[in-house]
Amino acid sequence: MVPMILPWQEAAWERLTQGLPTLHHALLLAGPAGQGKRQFAEAAAWRLLCEAPSPRRFACGECVGCQWLRADNHPDLLRLVPEQESEGSEEAEGKEAGKAKSHQIRIDQVRALTPVLAVSSHRGGRRVIIVDPAEAMNPFTANALLKLLEEPPAGVVFLLVSAQPMRLLPTLRSRCQRWDFPLPEADAVLAWLRAHHPQTPAELLDLVGGAPLTAAALAEKGGQALRERLVADLRQRPPADPVRLAGQWENWLRSKEAQGAGLDMATLVAWVQRWVTDVASVRLGGSARYFPDQARPLAALAGVMSVADALACYNEFIALRRVAQHPLNPRLMLEDMLIRYGRMLGGGG
Q1: CATH code of 113's domain
Q2: pLDDT, averaged across the chain
Q3: Domain end marker among 155, 180, 205
Q4: Which of 89, 125, 304, 334 is the most buried (most CB within 10 A)?
Q5: Residue 182, class by beta-carbon neighbours within 10 Å (0-12 exposed, 13-18 middle, 19+ buried)?
Q6: Does 212 fall in a domain?
């Protein structure tokens, strides 16, 4: 099937198709995760490699190039993705059993492009390289890619997809033309969800910060039940015993329910931080962003805390998110987080 864009990407697509003759050799597609930047990059790659574009200016789906793309073996489309996403590759199959796959894009992957780009394209047209997510490159990998961007081979278009563009090297960003993809308007998102993912409740869209694809994927995996449990545990007043709740949450993270929905430590910490953000916002006279349906419990919690405690806890949770990806001890991580939360509400030690 020919990849299509999402409704809120029409303006970016118009920009792409109108600027094809003078398209920059490197585009940085930047914006929050979960709104379809990867889908846009795939549609753009198909359009650039299609040999007979349709009147709607999407790939035709019928030419030789599109047939190769449909079979996922077009020699002029290359993808640089983390090893864990490269399913079925010969290199992945050759890894030692049980060895964890890398979350990074490795420098060897970039170096392998050099001999490929040294020869002309197979169909006499453009070649496209998708780097997704671009922030998965470490500095060594990024510098290797920078060398290619500084002296780009003729007819090659790099599409860098990033939800955290400021993590990229400044020199790398300077070689790209940045295209911003802000989160779409709520009305457009809700209309799209009703049409394509009617099982996605608005509460999950709020929880993930308005990212429609993330909300839809979470709903399909039972995310609403996870959210309900989180809210039930956090809105207690007085707050639950942090040590006991940490033990329960540790078992929760190990459960099939949580693992099937992709609920890991980093995600759980992010969700708790968003709850704390809403409590702090209400205490400061604002409104809830991530849990607007919990206005009354949030107001009750905000009423027992000081402004200083609200701001301090908010800042502490920002720091916790930085280490949530690599907790040395999950149980201690959870206990520390919940003790901080309880202290904010006057119930922690």
Answers
A1: 3.40.50.300
A2: 89
A3: 180
A4: 334
A5: exposed
A6: no
Written in H, E and C, the secondary structure of the chain is CCCCCCHHHHHHHHHHHHCHHHCCCEEEEECCCCCCHHHHHHHHHHHHHCCCCCCCCCCCCCCHHHHHHHCCCCCCEEEECCHHHCCCCHHHHCCCCCCCCCCCECHHHHHCHHHHHCCCCCCCCCEEEEECCHHHECHHHHHHHHHHHHCCCCCEEEEEEECCHHHCCHHHHHCCEEEECCCCCHHHHHHHHHHHCCCCCHHHHHHCCCCHHHHHHHHHCCHHHHHHHHHHHHCCCCCCCHHHHHHHHHHHHHCHHHHHCCCCHHHHHHHHHHHHHHHHHHHCCCCCCCCHHHHHHHHHHHCCCCHHHHHHHHHHHHHHHHHCCCCCCHHHHHHHHHHHHHHHCCCCC
Please give the Cα distance from 93 to 217 (Å, whole number): 28
> Which residues, other chains included, contact 103 with Cβ-Cβ below 8 Å and sequence gap of 6+?
82, 83, 84, 136
Which pLDDT tens digit goes with each residue over 11-62?
Answer: 999 999 988 889 999 999 999 999 999 999 999 999 999 988 876 688 988 8
Together in a domain, 230 and 286: yes
Total of domains in the chain: 2
Domain limits for position 295: 221-344
Closest CA to 277 of 293, 264, 288: 288
Tokens of 62: 């019928």
Band of the pLDDT at 87, cuts 50, 70, 90? low
> Would 131 be classed as within a structural domain?
yes
Highest mean pLDDT among 153-157, 185-189, 226-230: 226-230
Q: Tell me the backbone φ, ψ of residue 159, rounded to 5 degrees.
A: -115, 105
Is 70 exceeded by the pLDDT of residue 270?
yes
> What does the alpha-carbon distance between residue 268 and residue 257 come to, in Å, rounded to a whole number?
14
* Residue 255 token pair: 């459960």
Of 180, 206, 237, which residue constitutes the final position of a domain? Answer: 180
- pTM comes to 0.87
